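Fold it.
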Amino acid sequence: MSKLWGGRFQKSTDKLVDDFNSSIRFDQRLYKQDILGSIAHAKMLGKQEIIPVADSRIIEKTLKEILTDIEAGKIEFDIAAEDIHMNIEQILISKIGDVGKRLHTGRSRNDQVALDMRMYVKDEIKEIQDMISNLQQVLLNISKENLETILPGYTHLQKAQPITVAHHFMAYFEMLKRDKARLEDTYKRTNILPLGSGALAATTYPLDREFVAQELGFDTVSLNSLDAVSDRDFCIELLNSLSILMMHLSRFSEEIILWCSHEFQFIELDDAFSTGSSIMPQKKNPDIAELVRGKTGRIYGSLMALLATMKSLPLAYNKDMQEDKEPVFDAIDNVKMCLPVFADMIKTMKIRKDRMYEGAKGGFTNATDLADYLVKKGVAFRDAHAIVGKIVFSCIQRDIGLDDMTLDEYKQASAIIEEDVFKAISLEECVNKRNIIGGPSGEMMEKVIRINEEYLT
């Protein structure tokens, strides 16, 4: 089969070169974007009388038929045609002959692939944002049901202060808000039409680029043809945004893995979202959380691969840039696998409130509140810190908690301590006294949940 670009060549391409050079194995997923972009281009060519309007209409009609045939599984792509763009054009020409050869007027594969990738990334961003919103709704629902479920908060993976499940889960809600905002920013910089840039120096034809932008839902057109065909910043931005998203899911996964261990027993994963061992019959493994944690490194790898590919490329297009697609496709595919299964895992898990409460009682998580109690009685904070430190040391030696001390023992440490100290250091009081915006009190969490319910609508 002769190549559509083969006019100046006297020999056929080597079979190994065909296989090596071809991208149809992975870029065939761009078929819809390629066809829609070609339809808009053909309409514009007819509108501008660059090609006959009748030809434009035939091309548009036939491209729609090709789209239908592809989605019905009636078309098999040809590796010798190299990529999705040449495959579609070749199929078009086979159906309508010379009229189909007019489609490529005023464009290059360089601006065509840039268009297809931008359209694809735009579509995928919206889908991923919807999946994030679904996960956020799950977190919101769990938080509303656990405004008073106390668990220990940690720093350095050491028990620090008591908080609630609502406070903990809504921390991840905030991370996901930032993830969606980053994707929205990426979308804005992706939503620029490159078509009309040609191979690198635009074209002599009187293209109406704004018309094509409007047809395809782009905000604006690119202002420099060199940049437009060689830019993959939007792909790198996407991979960066997805890497940060996966980092958040990985952190959450690590906590899920810890929490369902025998040492913690804060949660129990549903059987439908756990696996067993081939040799140890007692095992119930958090494989979903572990896979999410593992796939995070894979997404990071996609980001680094594309950064490394682009780092030394001179303007404008270089064949190296064909390597943009597989990292982007792989990252998108894996993120879209992780988000829904992670959401369902969280939604179905059992929260063991008793174990969480017992966990919060240990580790002197109310020690800061004891110091605050002294400060409110007039003791300077640094002195209060020292007093409480000595009390904690004494408790450690006796293997008791702050709640187990008597009032007389407290008075030996500081004469200003009264009976009200026991209320001040109760876990419920420790949580609910933190009644400022951003804090874990039930009242503040209800307010935050209302704010975030409005955000999701």
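The chain is about 60% helix and 5% strand.
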